[in-house]
Amino acid sequence: MIDLIIRNANLPDGKSGVDIAIDKGKILEIETQIEAEAHQTLNLDHWLVSTPFVDPHFHMDSTLSAGRPRINQSGTLLEGIEIWGDLVPLLTADDIKHRARTLCHWSIAKGCLAIRCHIDVTDDSLLAVEALIELREELAPWIDLQFVAFPQNGLFRHPPAKENLLRSLDLGVDIVGGIPHFERTMADGTESVKVLCQIAADRGLLVDLHCDETDDPNSRHIETLACETQRLGMHGRVAGSHLTSMHSMDNYYVSKLLTLIKEAEITAIPNPLINITIQGRQDTYPKRRGMTRVKEMIDMGIPVALGHDCVMDPWYGLGSHDMLEVAHMAVHVGQMTGVDEINAMYAGVTTTGAEVMHLDHIGLKPGCDADLVILQARDPVEAIRLRATRLYVIRRGSVIAKSDPMQVNLMLGESDFGVDFLAIN
Ligand code: FE2
To answer: Is the model's pTM score more than 0.85?
Structure first.
């Protein structure tokens, strides 16, 4: 008698009518018909089962603080950084944990079971680092949290940042972060990339920089990041978040740059909701979209994961931490409406996201942890189209969230019937 069997599922790769046997928190078997008895059975009638959503780029210290101490009137990155700088001294550990815990509950409810969080290490108290490390332990049974030490005000522009970043790593933060385009000069930005990569190389850590989050096509810190990754032999261990300047760069230069990124095995983490909202703010018309060149990177074989970045904070006042909204926006902003392209955006918030986050325990194969999401959709395209209801969220073989299928009852004259928005076959 095994713990759980899921029957008659559709999988993201197009397989249909599949059974999944789960025991002791692991996937035992995935086959068309499994002969087994289980304590619990979920009969799905061809609903989509997928690995859970993951969010490879988020800010948990600032989430759910929108409007404190004031609204971002210009909507720009720089005003957001200014507002956040005013809020940080007012924060308490309890407040940070309360907001972050609420966000994690939203995330789990939406089927997202792993989040990479950039934690601002500007403040010498490292209050957010300590609070979120405690919260990570509290929530570990239900969600995987990775932390990036993020010097929001610049490694050199804010002199205590380097010391604070190193102290954060000592406390248990996993990944080295940075923000080269916010340093005072291009030269300082270049130097910050070198210093941060060296710290990661010395400590055997991953790197994930906010890199070139600007409309300025001359912001080319990704080039330095690729070069340092090569020089230090850190292939596969470095991610470039945002990379929005690439949107505005010259095509010829980008053709060289993509090769450098590919050679260094750098992964890319655009944040479509935030990039479309924050970039192009100083344009009149035409107004740039600001998202990096996702289609071209995927064509080159560069792994592209998609992040949510913000929910109700100084940079973005909307959102409910739904990774299907992120994928939906990526499809639109990147004009990626082909079926393969939509599937790639679904992978960006599931399997490719897990790969970029080095989450080897996640996968739809025997031996992987039974972390799964079951959607009221037949395939990934339908999941994105409908931002489909998450019927079940499963963590290590246990159902940890459940929603009723979405259906609207119409009352039209004499008739009374339900509509569910699924495709007509
Ligand atoms: Fe960010």
So the answer is: yes
